[in-house]
């Protein structure tokens, strides 16, 4: 309950939560006990009949609330389960989860030091260490609500870097700006181009090689073609760990081209940035230090709870110059402390969660992570990806789409009904239907969840993406065994 408590001679009133152990502790214990239960899948129409989604005016009891939470958990996907391989996030780190509970309970907004002193300084420390790992000797950074927002912010500051007047005068003063990304870059590039007024048609796509990496020669050609047509190139967006194939664009060659044409280089390392913590695998990110900006999501490969995403920049003052508005009611310059710690004005958001704490707590925990622990986590995931790749090659019912260079292991399952028919004219058409049917079977059974997709002219294939370092080689065998069990009668 909420109680208005008088603070005596000060005359100040504060709303304070007064939980009792008998009620609140038991309630939280009951909720935590439900989180590991298995999920039940129902179609949308059926779920609407099983779960009451209508807001209720009448308050309900503790027992009724627990039942509502139980139903919510039963019908929700357990993304922390080792057999959830469906998106570029998974697993539940107990220290990250505890950190998220703390910040949700404190309910801060990290825009000024006075309301978020610990988290303000913590952000500065974590962003500095992440910049060091990238190789930036100076610069700045910000936490973002996801990699898409980080990419969009990078596009905004890259445009501001070339045409500062855009901030005041609008996009018309800059002319027809174009940017370049690979054909396998994240779809947020087009979305943010539309949002920023650049236009989706002014995202110029660059060909990729057979492994999904951007072709520097075609990039050079595209830049020259757009320049000669009267357009104004202003940035290149490379990717370190593409969404589908897990490809790493050749950053040194791309950086050379950007230097030649004086273009801003942004690297979307939302997925692959975590390899920086591994001495065995960080070589895939050689050249990252030459970028002007980098997006990196610890909630992906490093398994921090959603959401935890950052944008790192090599230029110290550009975030504030591009975004600041100096709202006098919030960013007063005559406060009693150093207002340089009021960092909120460099953000596009005003109210903002303290996403840093869960990641910081994981990083500081000797039992869970630490820098060495993060390295072991990344290496264990890469080891399992290598193991399942080898196992796939030994099973006749599976065929790799390509040799993986990351944890994205892409493959086809060929059921007995299609084996030996690869030369038939309708083989690809029939194979295209296999992955959706298998996906339905695994979800309805509740045994696992693996995503699939087509790519260009390829039929649907499975994309195995692992982030849970608790998974073992035996789990890898289970995935393949289960696919064969489910697919036998397709």
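^ structure tokens above, recovered residues below v
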């Amino acid at each position: 309950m909420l109680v208005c408590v008088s603070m005596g001679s000060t005359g100040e009133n504060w709303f304070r939560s007064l939980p009792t152990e008998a009620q609140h502790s038991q309630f939280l214990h009951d909720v935590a006990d439900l989180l590991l239960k298995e999920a039940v899948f129902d179609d949308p129409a059926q779920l609407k009949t099983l779960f009451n989604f209508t807001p209720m005016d009448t308050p309900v009891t503790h027992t009724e609330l627990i039942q509502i939470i139980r139903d919510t958990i039963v019908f929700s996907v357990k993304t922390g389960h080792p057999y959830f391989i469906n998106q570029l996030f998974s697993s539940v780190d107990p220290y990250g989860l505890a950190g998220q509970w703390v910040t949700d309970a404190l309910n801060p907004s990290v825009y000024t030091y006075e309301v978020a002193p610990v988290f303000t300084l913590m952000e500065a420390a974590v962003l500095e260490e992440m910049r060091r790992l990238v190789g930036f000797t100076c610069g700045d950074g910000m936490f973002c609500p996801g990699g898409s927002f980080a990419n969009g912010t990078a596009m905004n500051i890259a445009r501001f870097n070339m045409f500062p007047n855009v901030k005041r005068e609008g996009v018309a003063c800059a002319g027809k700006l174009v940017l370049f990304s690979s054909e396998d870059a994240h779809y947020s590039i087009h979305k943010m181009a539309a949002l920023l007024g650049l236009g989706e048609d002014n995202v110029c796509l660059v060909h990729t090689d057979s492994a999904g990496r951007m072709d520097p020669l075609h990039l050079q050609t595209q830049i020259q073609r757009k320049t000669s047509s009267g357009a104004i190139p202003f940035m290149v967006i490379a990717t370190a760990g593409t969404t589908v194939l897990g490809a790493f664009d050749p950053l040194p060659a791309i950086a050379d081209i950007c230097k030649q044409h004086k273009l801003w280089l942004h690297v979307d390392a939302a997925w692959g940035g975590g390899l920086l913590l591994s001495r065995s695998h960080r070589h895939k990110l050689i050249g990252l230090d030459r970028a002007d900006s980098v997006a990196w999501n610890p909630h992906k490969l490093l398994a921090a709870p959603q959401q935890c995403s950052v944008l790192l920049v090599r230029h110290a003052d550009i975030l504030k110059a591009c975004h600041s508005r100096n709202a006098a009611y919030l960013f007063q310059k005559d406060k009693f402390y150093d207002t340089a710690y009021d960092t909120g004005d460099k953000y596009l958001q005003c109210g903002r969660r303290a996403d840093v704490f869960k990641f910081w707590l994981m990083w500081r925990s000797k039992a869970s992570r630490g820098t060495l622990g993060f390295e072991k986590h990344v290496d264990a995931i890469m080891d399992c990806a290598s193991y399942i790749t080898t196992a796939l090659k030994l099973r006749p019912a599976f065929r790799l789409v390509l040799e993986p260079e990351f944890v994205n292991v892409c493959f086809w399952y060929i059921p007995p009904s299609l084996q030996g028919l690869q030369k038939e004219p309708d083989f690809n058409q029939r194979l295209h239907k296999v992955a959706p049917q298998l996906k339905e079977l695994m979800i309805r059974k509740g045994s696992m969840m693996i995503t699939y997709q087509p790519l260009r002219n390829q039929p649907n294939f499975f994309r195995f993406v692992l982030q849970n370092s608790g998974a073992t080689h035996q789990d890898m065998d289970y995935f393949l065994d289960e696919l064969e069990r489910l697919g036998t009668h397709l």
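The radius of gyration is 25 Å.
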